[in-house]
Design brief:
The structure is a homotrimer of 268-residue chains. Chain A has 268 residues and is α+β, with helices and mostly antiparallel strands. The first copy, chain A, folds into 2 domains: 5-150, S-adenosyl-l-methionine hydroxide adenosyltransferase, N-terminal (Rossmann fold, 3-Layer(aba) Sandwich); 166-264, Elongation Factor Tu (Ef-tu), domain 3 (Beta Barrel). Chain A contains 4 helices and 14 strands. The first copy, chain A, has helices spanning 18-29, 47-57, 129-142, 249-253; strands spanning 5-10, 34-39, 66-70, 81-86, 90-94, 108-113, 166-167, 171-179, 185-190, 204-209, 212-219, 230-234, 239-244, 260-264. In chain A, strands 8-9-13-12-11-10-14 form a 7-stranded mixed β-barrel. In chain A, a hairpin with a 5-residue loop joins strand 8 (171-179) and strand 9 (185-190). At the B-C interface, helix 1 of B face strand 1, strand 2 and helix 2 of C.
Chain lengths: 268, 268, 268
């Protein structure tokens, strides 16, 4: 029989024993689980970064994967603990929005509040629900325990959103929602609004970001421009990205996440 | 049949090929091993940090887990190589104290010195026993080889200790034994000595650390104080921790590991 | 039946969703794959560092392991995609040299260019062949798909080389090819050219590096000199290394990769 897959996404880093404790709890309950590290290097307490991470890659996982997410600045407060059941996956984690972007392309079937302490590690701490609540729940789900067992269906839970760009006749006003290790600037501007009146993709786009105005080639590959040249490209999540071939666009332009960017319209 | 679990804890980092070599050696001997990364980011040569890490999370793993620890500044010297057999686990690593805190809550049954070179990778280097000695021994243990096969029982091996706080009528004198990624300051002061004469937990505690005196709420959750406020809390290993809700207490107080901390007595 | 092993070596870091996407793609095609992280912290775009990493540890893996390497600054250009079939392994990755050092000790049987888009994730991006081409190919190989299925045999592909030291009567002129986390300086000088006329190993060697001349003990273990003393040693890949016992030789000598080093001859 196929081993159940549990992925881990946290902001715990790798120097502290927290991730190890979670792995131990999972394997104690479901020894056959295949634990897959996604990342433990999400910025501390950055719910939005975690949500966007999960959104970007979740669809590549096989059906029935259980995604365990622990980015939880409100641990011990009255925030709920959740199981999201989507068409393809279970998502387990805190009710702070971190789970809420992932199901954009994967219809939510049911949302459960985790309340049944039968399945918790006892005593439950108020500082580490990742270990005491989320890990055991994920492991019991991997053991084919029905999600109904963990608590009631709820309707009211926290969703965050990727900010929508504003469009007027002269410009698209967006922002940088992520900067990757390579310094690529990922915007919130989707592919379908960057097109000419005939529906075709423009050859060049003109952007304003900080104090710079750039006219850059809209490429399908980094290597269509010379090394060190700026380019625009639609990345793996179909958002417009601003890159510098084999160099770091974020450093060159001195950009941080949430920086505003505008793109000139209409496209010609 | 259940796959054997081998955890890895090292100070090798992730940029060098050392961890990869260890994983290859394990899988060559025991292809069905389930290898679980605990951390490879223990500070270089920091035996105490590694020992404390293992102590903090080992109990969450299922019985029969094999824990392989390679923090080994004395590799190639006359230091021994060890198998610790506890009630629940095997621990494999160098005899420098790094294995010695983990069994505090898990009775040691037997300690073996690894001497039987039949099980070593040949030729054995004097620079990388993690690959040439500890990894193959862990993998053979995972193949159900009896620990007696690897060498003689010994009594004399190196133990380190978590320093005990000193208590007088006016103060508890402790120290910071770990600082986590979130900047939480973990002390060596256990829960059972922080109580009032009636055995109850005090509401506030007064601490001195560096040049600061703080009166802080003793909480059960970070969220009982406002964002940015200091709090005291008993963490996942039941030691007193000094934290700042959603901020970094270590940075705010400019604290490093081994900093002294004192807590005022008697508690009121 | 034995689970197939797929190792991952990338320069993606752990904060972005790229490695997670690759793992998801692999498990969707070959759910029983045992995914082993080698490193995701190769320096961005550093083909040589990746090639040397793989060369240093590949031989420790069991026969039939599939090694997936994604260090790919030329993604989307006309560079080929490759499967290298060696006596023991499959190597999958871009044709930029990153795969070419690993087979030095493991005879290459056949090299295939990956062209059969039947096996690709559709649509194939021009920015992320790791996810869209290499991961599915590795997973199909793990499913025992024959390498011939993915494209034609080729002869012409890119090899890089570890630079050879130059030897004259007075000196061996080499360079630093890697610096590890511990600050050990790994040179390109192999063991077999550091010997006396009688074939024995010299006791001391005299090296020049930057503005320093050092006469240092040639050891078999770091602990043969005092803490903080320099030593020379043959490391795990049989290249001469310059180290400082329990300290950082690279920092002490202010050395970066590619620094020249010369060793005095003849050995006495």
């Amino acid at each position: 029989m196929q081993e159940p897959i549990i992925t881990l996404l946290t902001d715990f880093g790798e120097r502290d024993p927290y991730v190890g404790a979670i792995k131990g709890v999972i394997l104690s309950i479901c020894p056959q689980a295949k634990i897959i590290d996604l990342s433990h290097d999400i910025e501390k307490h950055n719910i939005y970064e975690g949500a966007l991470f999960l959104y970007s890659m979740i669809k590549y996982f096989p059906k029935h994967t259980i995604h365990l997410v622990v980015i939880d600045p409100g641990v011990g407060s009255k925030r709920k603990s959740l199981i999201l059941q989507t068409d393809n996956y279970f998502l387990v984690g805190p009710d702070n929005g971190v789970l809420s972007l992932a199901p954009i392309n994967d219809k939510i079937q049911k949302v459960f509040e985790i309340t049944n302490s039968t399945y918790f590690l006892q005593p439950v701490s108020d500082t580490f629900h990742g270990r005491d609540i989320f890990a055991p729940v994920a492991a019991h789900l991997a053991n084919n325990r029905a999600p109904e067992k963990f608590g009631p269906l709820i309707e009211d839970w926290i969703r965050i959103e990727i900010p929508k760009p504003r469009i007027n006749t002269a410009e698209i006003h967006g922002e940088i929602i992520h900067i990757d290790k390579f310094g690529n600037l990922i915007t919130n501007i989707p592919r379908d609004i960057v097109q000419k009146r005939d529906g075709l993709q423009p050859k060049y786009i003109q952007i304003k970001i900080r104090d710079r105005e750039l006219e850059i080639l809209l490429c399908s590959s980094y290597t269509q421009v010379g090394i060190g040249e700026f380019l625009a490209i639609f990345g793996s999540t179909n958002f417009l990205e601003i890159s510098k071939n084999q160099e770091n666009a974020a450093d060159a332009l001195n950009i941080k996440v949430q920086e505003k960017v505008s793109v000139k319209r209409p496209f010609t």
